[in-house]
Design goal:
single chain, alpha/beta, 6-stranded parallel sheet, 3-stranded antiparallel sheet, 9 helices, globular, binds nicotinamide-adenine-dinucleotide, binds zinc ion
Length: 233
């Protein structure tokens, strides 16, 4: 796999954090920590029930203190440190486990639990404690701070930069994502169209498995260190 690979793009999803103890999105019941997606992941939910939405992300943020990166996060951080070519890790996760493992070339395309966004002026600020509704923005003074999470119907972050990286990629790897949420689910096709090799690492066959040249089924904590060893050999 290693030959001729210089530019790598890696997409990660909730599955890479599952072995750290963070529940995946849909889970067996199709819920995120007991909540319907529509109730906690949409602009409408935030408008109609800000208390519930803020509390939901407060709970998710507080939970970060109880978990640590697993062998898959550690392996990607080691790859980031050692890889001399281009590398971009694009995560759909809102947890901070990639950066705590030491990854630096990282984009949180769906936002971050540890950030608050001003709905009035767009200013984002690092935030690690509870975020009550009507918290005030330092930049514009409005009481409009919300969780810095990209809801359904909102534009993910840094799509231009991601697109450039995908089009230049020699290898695209998708790890622990169900391939159900667009635009991330379409990255494999962009990369493949541009000539990249494509590899999926996931516990179960995903909605997008057919688009990948190769799919390996198993736990991220085993498959990711394996892949990184091969790339760095
Ligand atoms: P998803 O929950 O829809 O899918 C997770 C995928 O990971 C599944 O296909 C499952 O088979 C696989 N998986 C589960 N355990 C695994 C393991 N140990 N090793 C490898 N694969 C494993 O997740 P998604 O595709 O990332 O979409 C969910 C959305 O919900 C994301 O956009 C994200 O913002 C949000 N979310 C984030 C977190 C987090 O930050 N940790 C957690 C839940 C949901
Ligand atoms: Zn503001």
């Amino acid at each position: 796999m290693k030959q001729d690979i210089r530019n790598i793009v890696i997409l990660t999803g909730a599955g890479i954090s599952a072995e750290s103890g963070l529940a995946t999105f849909r889970g067996p019941e199709g819920l995120w920590e007991g909540h319907r997606v529509e109730d906690v992941c949409t602009p409408e939910a935030l408008a109609h029930n800000p208390a519930l939405v803020h509390r939901f992300y407060d709970e998710r943020r507080a939970r970060l203190a109880d978990v640590v990166p697993n062998a898959a996060h550690d392996a990607l951080a080691a790859l980031d440190r050692a890889w001399t070519g281009e590398l971009l890790i694009v995560t759909q996760n809102v947890d901070d486990l990639h950066e705590r493992a030491g990854a630096r070339r990282l984009i949180h395309m769906h936002g971050e639990l540890n950030s608050a966004l001003c709905a009035a002026c767009g200013n984002a600020v690092a935030w690690s404690v509870d975020l009550p509704p009507e918290s005030r923005c330092d930049a514009c003074g409005q009481p409009r701070l919300r969780p810095d999470i990209v809801f359904f119907g909102e534009m993910p972050y840094q799509m231009d930069r991601i697109d450039v990286a995908l089009r230049a990629a020699d290898l695209f790897v998708s790890i622990g994502t169900s391939g159900a949420v667009y635009p991330a689910a379409g990255f494999v096709q962009t990369a493949r169209h541009a000539g990249a090799r494509t590899l999926e690492l996931n516990l179960d066959p995903s909605a997008g498995s057919d688009y990948f040249e190769e799919s390996r089924l198993g736990a991220a904590s085993l498959l990711v260190p394996d892949m990184v060893r091969t790339l760095l050999a």
